[in-house]
Amino acid sequence: MNAVSERIAAVAMKELVQMRRDRLTFAMMFGIPIIQLVLFGFAINLDPKRLPSALLVEEQTPIVRTLVSALETSGYYDFVLQTDDPRESTELLARGEVAFVVTIPSGFTRALLRGERPQLLIEADASDPAATSNAVGRAETILERALRHERLGAAVAGAPAPFELVIHSRYNPEGKTSYNIVPGLLGVILTMTLVMITGMAMTREAERGTLENLLAMPARPGEVMVGKIFPYVLVGSAQTAVILVAAKLLFGVPFVGALWLLLLGVAIFVIANLSLGFTFSTIAQSQMQAMQLTFFFFLPSLLLSGFMFPFRGMPTWAQTIGEALPLTHFLRVVRGVMLKDASLQQLAQPLLAMTAFTVVVMAVAMLRYKRTLD
What we know:
This protein has helices at 2-21, 23-43, 62-73, 86-95, 108-113, 129-137, 139-149, 178-208, 211-216, 221-249, 259-283, 287-304, 316-323, 326-340, 348-373; strands spanning 51-57, 77-83, 100-104, 119-125, 164-170. It is an alpha/beta fold. It has a 5-stranded mixed β-sheet with strand order 2-1-3-4-5, with helices on both faces. Strand 1, helix 3 (62-73) and strand 2 (77-83) form a beta-alpha-beta unit. Helix 2 (23-43) packs parallel to helix 12, helix 3 crosses helix 7 and helix 11 runs parallel beside helix 15 (348-373). The model has no long low-confidence stretch (mean pLDDT 84).
């Protein structure tokens, strides 16, 4: 029995030594659960509050100020801008800078006092229905309660509100989640596959003993990098075509924008992910480690980009991390083009953010590959 225990202890000790040597895998064993715990526990919020909103008010009366104050006090609406130009509010919605535009027309107060049930308009960016549904669903109750406090609400329970609330769901009138999820899947699939297969490319060379032949070639680091990732650009192009066709034919997702603008965003995004995968390949010592690094990057990208959960519902620190991820900006591009017919000017910020990420990651990959050559 002692001999058996000794053999088991020897094997266990050998495994512990192996784990200590494989520091990356050991770090992943603890790092990934901690990341999941923090993200799901603190960053995820299915009831977003303080959503940026614009106010289009054509009159200033105490009743109007009461209604605006009630919406803001509810915690759902954060009026960051007041304008008198409908074109400006439309532009803000298209850019994604605001989630709502609340319009109170001229003569609203007079019609309200006369009992004529005037209309009050709320335009919502419904490209992400989960982000705005709660705020829209509770708006009438919030406004009616404010008027009742001013003794202008319905005196009889069940009586209609003294105003008519008109909800205009922009870009997704029917509130179909597929309009939001399916375009986002393009970015998720490209992130998962391209980072992984590129990350495994160089480590596969090392494991098979062919890395020395690659290093002996007269090619410069940049040339090797381009040569390694170019075939996967074709893979990403094929994946994009398949997903876009499926989105149109199987799910009926509209495509109202310019195809060239979407392809520009896809090209930058693909190169960004391939460059990141190449960088991971210079860090990992095996294909397994390359897969682990990919998952370590993919998990926060999936949770903090706005794909699964409303981006604006996350705390500030989580949004800051999300802004550093290329998937966050790609989702804004693909949804902006497909659902909003956004222009190049409106999508300049996310395109520039993805480009900056690509440049930084490519520079890191080049530096690390030069160290490998040395």
